[in-house]
Amino acid sequence: FVPSFPMISLRCVRQQMQCLRRTGYRAWMQACFEQNVIKPAKEMSQRQVVVSASVGFWGGVFPVPPCTMPATLFCVLVYSAGVPKVQRFSVPMTALAVVINELSLPVDLVMMPCFITLGQRAYQCLSGDTLPSCSVALEDLQARPAETLHAFSTAFGLGIMVWALATPVVLGKIRVVGALAGKLLEPTFRKL
Fold it and tell me: How far does CA 58 lie from the centroid of its chain?
C-alpha cells in the first residue's frame, strides 16, 4: 500500500496509520515521496522542466531573500494565467520551481544589491533626490539607525519595484525558451 496525499476519509487515514506502523516512518516517507514527487517529476516533459526551473530561479532572485517563496508562487500563478491549460503549472512543476527557488539563494544574495542600485537610479532619475548607497547606509546605521533604516527601506522597496516591473518581460522570455526547449531538446533526449 503506497500512501498518497489526498487523504479525505477516516478509513483512508486509518489505512495510512496502519501502513506507517507496519513499514516504519522512514520507509513510509520514502514511498510517499516516491509516489507524489519523484514519479510525477520523471513524467515531466523537457519543456516543463525548463519552464519550472526558470520560473523558480526568477522567483529565487527576488530582492528580499526571506520572501522568495511568495514571489515564486506569484510567478507560477502569473505564468499559468496566460497560457493554455495544458501548459499551466502542475504540482510537480511547482515543486521543482520551489526547489530551484531555494537553491538560488546564493545568486539572490549577489543580485540583491543590483536590484537595489537599479531602483535607486530610477528614483534619482524620476525625483532628482539621491538615496544613500549600501556602504554608506551601513556606516550611518550606527549613528542614526531610525533615519538610515527609513531611507534604506525605500531602497528595498525600489528594488522590489524593479523586480516586479521586469517580471512580465522575464516570464514572457521563459515562455519562448520553454517553447523552444520542447522542440530543441526533444531529439537530444530521444537519442539517450
Answer: 6
Give the DSSP H/E element, type plus range, for residue 15. helix 10-23
Q: Are 28 and 3 in contact (CB under 8 A)?
A: yes
Single out the residue of 70, 64, 52, 28 nearest to residue 171, CA to CA: 52
pLDDT per residue as tens digits for the range 2-39: 444 444 577 877 887 888 888 888 887 888 778 877 78
Distance CA 102, CA 125 (A): 34
Instruction: Kindly report the pTM of this predicted structure.
Output: 0.69
How many whole angstroms separate alpha carbon 164 and alpha carbon 140?
28
Side chain identity at residue 8, one-letter code: I
Number of H helices, E strands in the chain: 9, 0
For residue 172, which of 92, 65, 58 has the smallest C-alpha distance? Answer: 58
| CA 96/CA 53 separation, integer angstroms | 7
How far apart CA 87 and CA 140 sit, in angstroms, is 49
Contact 55, 105 (CB under 8 A): no
Q: What CA–CA distance (Å, rounded) separates 110 from 115?
A: 10
Q: CA angle, corner 48, sides to 44 and 53, nearest 5?
A: 115
Does residue 81 contact residue 90 with C-beta atoms inside 8 Å? no
Tell me if residue 51 falls in helix, strand or coil. Answer: helix
